[in-house]
Design a protein that fits this description.
heterodimer, A: 5-stranded mixed β-barrel, 10 strands, globular, B: 11 strands
Chain lengths: 148, 396
């Protein structure tokens, strides 16, 4: 039986392969960008308020900082308790043109030993977890020097 | 400057893992604070409880829960929640009532009974809750945020793992002298380095535990204190409960991203430094006037960050201040004379109140073996997730 691919959160990212992008919103009045997306109101207190339009975020950014999870995170993070815990790295990435920092997991196989602050990374599609019916998809950060 | 309120009494239930309920801990702390103040509970006009989210309804209505446990006597009641900053909000609520003339004497109580392991969000399937999302989408526990801040300091300021370890060594030495601390054993840098990595680059002994514990204060008007015979009480001169300013460009728990600075320039100082600045401005003092500081060392690296945010040194100079011994016992500006969260572990709604208890004992000169000589002015600093600043300045 094939699983359905479903984004872990609706409307936060779109596309496949080279076309994959995080999705934010931008205020038509003040140009503030929001991720996670704001769809109701602009949060800039100096803005008279404009329409919020969906925009793709920059594909590439630079590592602001990084860490990892050496122990199994609690629910609602999903992991198989039967399997030995495999640590994964988390990166906070600075997007230059949006002037914001976005967290994300790295692609599998990239550890903190492979990372430095300031390194260029790009956003790629990833799988968060799978259950009987669903493959839950997410975004991952990958150093641009890595093609695996 | 606003008016001052008197600290008539301070009390705690010792921190630990005791296996009992938060109501019992809070009641012990409240009774201790009332006894310390020499005030009968029936003469207290108002009670303010700092909420715990772990107690179900009794935790959400902590003020009423403690009032009932102490014996209903008709006092005005309030319950406040601001995550780790809940205790400071409770102190501020009490202060506002006293300064506005709504109450002469207010009892402030915070208590928690913490679960084992990582803090986790409330249950259910709640994609509209940033705290739920960061666990579901990223598995981002609190220590991973501490790890991000620590690695950033290493890259930008050149802090080392040895610097972080020395914060733990300092705080453990002070906690060993504190009968209310959970961990009362000195720790070496080698022991920190030998402990397991939890969130790179931080190890188990760099990160504070979660604890059971309770703290309480009896606050009053200066006029009531005089009538009560407290001629020279410790006074609370400032309470800062500020929020961030848009755009907040330092990644904060539980957020997955910062605000964007594309349309509005960030303020010159960060949210954390604005917390202390508001307290200094309200008190009419500066960092050079401080005798001691109690800061929220959720991690060893975060304690160093607070040195800079409180203006104890310039940006990037915290590790140097630590290495010089300025923040240790007997130094120019001892930080976490209580032993800090490193020695207590965090009992969320009690912790900011416990910081003020420590200032009270230090300013009275009754802190025993960990006494800061000649302490006259103290500051606490803390930050609650979801944008809650907290800082209290007390003087004597």
């Amino acid at each position: 039986m094939s699983r359905t691919r479903t984004p872990v959160v609706t409307g936060w990212f779109t596309g496949e392969g080279e076309e994959f992008r995080l999705l934010g919103t931008r205020c038509s009045a003040c140009t503030s960008v929001f991720f996670p997306r704001e769809d109701a109101f602009c949060r800039n207190p100096g803005c008279p308020g404009g329409d919020l339009e969906e925009i793709p975020l920059s594909r590439r950014g630079r590592v602001w900082s990084y860490t990892d999870s050496r122990y199994r995170p609690p629910s609602p993070y999903v992991s198989d308790p039967e399997l030995e815990w495999q640590p994964y790295a988390l990166i906070a990435v600075e997007l230059e043109s949006e002037r914001l920092v976005v967290l994300g997991q790295t692609v599998p196989g990239v550890t903190v030993a492979d990372l430095t602050v300031g390194m260029e990374v790009e956003v790629v599609p990833g799988v968060l977890n799978e259950d009987a019916e669903t493959t839950w998809t997410t975004w991952h950060w990958r150093p641009t020097g890595v093609t695996a | 400057m606003t008016g001052e309120v008197a600290v008539l009494g301070a009390g705690m239930h010792p921190w630990g893992k005791w296996g009992r309920g938060f109501v019992e801990y809070g009641t012990v702390a409240a009774r201790a604070a009332l006894a310390d103040a020499g005030v009968d509970w029936r003469d207290v006009g108002s009670i303010v409880g700092a909420d715990t989210v772990r107690g179900g309804y009794p935790g959400y209505v902590a003020g009423a829960t403690f009032a009932k446990a102490l014996g209903w006597q008709g006092a005005r009641v309030a319950s406040v929640y601001a995550a780790c900053a809940s205790g400071a909000q409770a102190v501020n609520t009490a202060r506002a009532q006293i300064l506005s003339g709504l109450a002469d004497v207010v009892l402030v109580v915070g208590a928690d009974a913490a679960p084992k392991g990582f803090f986790r969000p409330a249950g259910g399937d709640r994609a509209d809750d940033p705290d739920w999302l960061r666990f579901r989408v990223l598995g981002a526990t609190n220590p991973t945020y501490f790890g991000l801040y620590a690695r950033r300091r290493m890259a930008v300021h050149g802090d080392t793992l040895e610097d972080f370890a020395q914060v733990k060594v300092k705080n453990a030495a002070l906690g060993a002298l504190n009968p209310n601390a959970r961990y009362r054993k000195r720790v070496t840098a080698e022991e920190v380095a030998a402990s397991a990595v939890v969130a790179d680059p931080l190890r188990l002994l760099d990160i504070c535990a979660t604890s059971d514990g309770a703290a309480a204060l009896v606050l009053s008007s200066m006029e009531f204190a005089r009538r009560h015979g407290a001629a020279d009480p410790v006074r609370i001169r400032a309470v800062s409960t500020v929020t961030p300013r848009y755009p907040n460009t330092v990644l904060d728990l539980p957020d997955i991203a910062t605000d964007s600075a594309v349309a509005a320039e960030p303020a010159a100082d960060t949210f954390r430094s604005s917390i202390a600045r508001a307290a200094y401005e309200e008190a009419g003092i500066g960092p050079e006037d401080l005798s001691l500081a109690e800061v929220y060392d959720l991690s060893t690296a975060l304690e160093l960050q607070w040195y800079e945010d409180l203006g104890l040194c310039g940006e990037g100079e915290a590790a140097k201040l630590l290495r010089e011994g300025a923040t240790a016992s007997g130094g120019r500006i001892p930080v976490n004379a209580s032993g800090g969260l490193a020695s207590f572990g965090e009992a969320v709604p009690a912790q900011a109140i416990a910081q003020v208890c420590e200032l009270t004992w230090q300013l009275r000169g009754t802190a025993g073996d960990r006494q800061v000589a000649g302490a006259r002015v103290g500051i606490t600093a803390n930050q609650g997730l979801f944008g809650h600043g907290s800082s209290v300045i007390a003087v004597r």
